[in-house]
Amino acid sequence: MRERFWDTVKLKDMTPQEWEALCDGCGKCCLNKIEFEDTNEIAFTRVACKLLDGESCFCSKYETRRNYVPDCVQLTPAKLPEVAYWLPRTCAYRRLHEGKPLPDWHHLLTGDREAIHRAKASVRGWTVPEYQVSEEDWEDYLIEETP
Fold it and tell me: Which family is this sequence assigned to (predicted)?
């Protein structure tokens, strides 16, 4: 990968390896969300996709996830403008799309994949698998996203 590529390369011009490296491993994109039709507001829940490993905060079947979750969004540079609004505010893809820097704890800056967890910026240890919660009850699991 190119040195500090996130500062010098446009998202659309990144290699697949660079694009994937932007993921901070927070797991927040795998949380089920509720979109309120009257306000278009997105609310995050503690209810996680059935494939999210709540300890590692990565998808347990990443390469084949669409076989198990057909509506899983495969984030690409082309799709990013359409879906950035439902990504967490700390997400590297969203931040770079909005012209913001990576968070200080990001592994590309620290060289440490655990920094995100120490910063309490991931979902490690506090999600509930979606198969344990009825969709009608998701509102009982709303969380306030942290900036």
Answer: Belongs to the UPF0260 family.
Sign of CA dihedral 17, 19, 22, 25: negative
Q: Encode the chain in three state secondary structure.
A: CCCCHHHHCCHHHCCHHHHHHCCCCCCHHHEEEEEECCCCEEEEEEEECCCECCCCCCECCHHHHHHHCCCCCCCCCCCHHHHHHHCCCCCHHHHHHCCCCCCCCCHHHHCCCCHHHHCCCCCCCCCEEHHHCCHHHHHHHECCCCC
Closest alpha carbon to 66 in 54, 76, 51: 51
pLDDT by residue (tens digit) across 48-97?
999 999 999 999 999 999 999 999 988 999 999 999 988 999 999 999 99
Q: pLDDT tens-digit profile of 118-135?
A: 999 999 999 999 999 999
Token digits for 136? Answer: 């009608």
